Amino acid sequence: MIEPARRTPCASLFLAASAALVFSWPGLAAHLQYDRAAIAAGETWRLVSGHWTHYSLDHFVWDGLAFAALGIACERKSRSRFLVCLFASALMISLSVWLLLPEMEVYRGLSGIDSALFTFLAGVMWNDGRRKDQPGQQAIAMACAIAFLLKAAVELVTGNTVFVRGMGLDAVGVPLAHIVGAGCGLVAGLTGPPYETGRQVVLRSSHTTQWSSTT
Predict the structure, then answer these.
(1) Could you please report the per-residue DSSP string of 7-25?
(2) pLDDT of residue 148 exceeding 80
(3) Does any domain span residue 65?
């Protein structure tokens, strides 16, 4: 069995660069952020694009670096599952904010999606550990999930984000986004196949000299 080198994580790098472009382009974030009034007026793309907008340099750096690192790791596991997890969590987070936080007029940030990618990796690691009968790997996955739960609990109790400190005037953390994102990621990680399905595998029959390729 022969497996080629892992694919280049083009999607995650492109999306991380997009967040950098939005942050560096003056005024662009205002046209893309989650804005309740604008969404109600028909600008529904903001339900997804708002996650790529940020309030401050500190906010962008923490969210952007986490997204790039987690996105690359997830995409190398499976590009299709990475994209499904990403856009499903983006939409579910925005809908949750819309339904459960009607007083929130504006929302920005990738942290909810970062939470989804983190728990996605934990779910995939758990599945892989179960398939390979490696309880140590499952223990690491469980530890990651517990660490996230502790972080979410601290944010709920204090009302502050654990990592980002300077988001800007009147900007506050939204623990709901992290919890919903984490739920989406965990479902995506646990329900998919416990191994990479996108790599090419070359097989040789023991009865013939014919080679076949499967993905």
Answers:
(1) PP-HHHHHHHHHHHHHHHS
(2) yes
(3) yes
Residue 34 dihedral angles phi and psi, to the nearest 5°: -65, 115
For residue 1, tell me if it sits in a domain.
no
166 and 56 Cβ atoms separated by less than 8 Å: yes
Copy the structure tokens of residue 49. 């694009």
| Number of folded domains that form the chain | 1
Interatomic CA distance for residues 38 and 33, integer angstroms: 9
Average pLDDT on 143-161 reads 81
Q: How far does Cα 208 stand from its chain's mean position?
A: 45
Q: What does the alpha-carbon distance between residue 34 and residue 29 come to, in Å, rounded to a whole number?
A: 9
- Residue 113 structure tokens: 């999606």
Q: How far apart are CA 125 and CA 112, in angstroms?
A: 20
- Global pTM? 0.82
**Is 17:68 a contact under the CB 8 Å cutoff?**
no
Banded model confidence at residue 171, pLDDT cuts 50, 70, 90: low
For residue 111, give the CATH number of its domain: 1.20.1540.10
| Size of the chain in residues | 215
- H-type helices in 101-110, by residue range? none
Domain that holds residue 90: 10-214
Cα 35 from Cα 45, distance rounded (Å): 10
Q: Would residue 5 count as lying in a domain?
A: no
* Residue 203 and residue 1 in contact, taking contact as beta carbons nearer than 8 Å: yes
